[in-house]
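*** Protein under study ***
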Amino acid sequence: MFFYVFVIVVVVIWAHKFYGLDGLLVKWRSKRDLHIQYKEPIEKYNRFYQRLPQKSKIIFEQKVNYFLYTKEFIPRTIEEVTDEMKALISATAVQLTFGLPDITLKHFDKI
C-alpha cells in the first residue's frame, strides 16, 4: 500500500514540475461560471459586454475568470481592492484582448 501511495506522490510531483498542473487548474477554474459578485458589476457597467451576443458573453466571462485567477490585485493608495474593482479591471483587460485567443497579458502578474 505504501508503495502505491509513494508512486502516486512521485507522479504528481513530476507532472506538476514538467506539465505545470497549476496552469491546468487555472484553465479549469476559468471555464466555470463567473461568480455573481464579479458578474453583476460587469453586466451593469461594461457596455462592451452588454452588447455581446450570448455565446460571446460566455467566452468573455471565461476570460475574466482566467484573468481574476492569474493576477494578484494589490492596493496602492486605497485600503483594499474590492470585488467590484477586480471585476471591472479584469473586464477592461479582457475587452482590450477580446478576439485575440492567445493573448492573456501573462507578463502582468500584479495589478
About this structure: The chain has a mean pLDDT of 80.
